[in-house]
Design a protein that fits this description.
Layout lengths: L2 H8 L2 H11 L5 E4 L12 H9 L4 E8 L5 E3 L20 H5 L4 E2 L2 E2 L7 H8 L4 E6 L4 H13 L6 E5 L5 H7 L5 E5 L2 H10 L4 E4 L6 H9 L3 E5 L3 H4 L2 H7 L7 E4 L2 H10 L5
Parallel strand pairs: 1-2, 1-11, 2-6, 6-7, 7-8, 8-9, 9-10, 10-11
Antiparallel strand pairs: 2-3, 4-5
Helix pairs in contact: 3-5
């Protein structure tokens, strides 16, 4: 068999996404906030599956730890708004959480809170994952990193940290795990650049300037920004505004299908 044909046959869908992420900076990738929750409950397996089916590049998922040490997907500290139960994730066992159902915009669904392992299994080889780590303990961070490594998915994920200083904690656990630090101003941006070991940074809208982010791009790092809120609500007009930020490589949105179609129309996505 022709070697090129063989490689194309064995290449997984996520390989093309990873290649675009690291090597084709002219494209803008789409990240689905809390997976594709326009139809299904956020952070649910169907929301992940739908994002995969639509050809979205990245899903953002929120990871917490249960009382008995199981990693699960849940944005809030409390389950009150997102499920038909009450209490905090950290105060409940995985079995207790499995007796509950997720809500979609206040309406109870048939879906249950997924484990992080189940989410990784579903996404493996298919889509990149932004891990928004929301647990409070280092042991949970270690468990998260170890599970990703155990499943051989280091290059498929980004580990998001709210404080860039915490990025070193993740790298100390697994130096091969790609970390995405958040920056709020120019000083933090330059501090991250000085460390020189991250593939991407998450830039707050308030600190974004083309000149500053051009320095980031020259350091072979990518730039992630959010469309969440006003940009998303304005639709194409909001997306037009985002494209004025010339150094952006990844946009996180609550409307991934619409953003993907928009970028393809502009020739900014495959």
């Amino acid at each position: 068999m022709n070697k090129l044909l063989f490689l194309l046959l064995v290449m997984m869908p996520v390989d093309k996404i990873i290649k675009d992420f690291y090597h084709h900076h002219q494209y803008i990738l789409v990240a689905a906030h809390r997976a594709d929750h326009e139809v299904y409950a956020e952070n649910s397996l169907p929301a992940i599956r739908t994002a995969i089916d639509k050809g979205i590049d990245i899903i953002e998922i929120d990871v917490r730890e249960t009382k008995d040490g199981v990693l699960v997907l849940m944005h809030d500290e409390s389950i009150d708004k997102k499920t038909d139960g009450h209490g905090k994730v950290a105060d409940m066992t995985y079995a207790e959480l499995q007796s509950l159902h997720l809500k979609k915009e206040g309406v109870v669904t048939t879906e249950r809170i997924p484990s992080f392992r189940d989410a990784l299994e579903l996404a493996r080889g298919r889509i990149m994952i932004d891990i928004d780590f929301k647990a409070d303990t280092r042991s949970a961070m270690v468990s998260t990193c170890k599970l990703v490594k155990e499943m051989g998915m280091e290059q498929q994920v980004l580990f998001f940290v709210y404080d860039y200083k915490d990025a070193a904690l993740v790298r100390a656990i697994d130096p091969d795990l790609p970390v995405m630090p958040r920056v709020h101003n120019a000083a933090e941006t330059m501090a991250v650049l000085k460390q020189g070991c991250y593939p991407i940074l998450h830039a707050d809208d308030a600190c974004y300037t083309d000149s500053l982010m051009q320095v980031v791009r020259k350091a072979n790092m990518r730039v992630w920004i959010n469309a969440l809120g006003d940009y998303d609500e304005l639709g194409e007009q909001g997306f037009d505004s985002l494209l004025q930020k010339k150094q952006v490589n990844v946009i996180q949105t609550d409307k991934p299908e619409e953003l993907l179609a928009y970028l393809r129309k502009k020739g900014l996505h495959r």
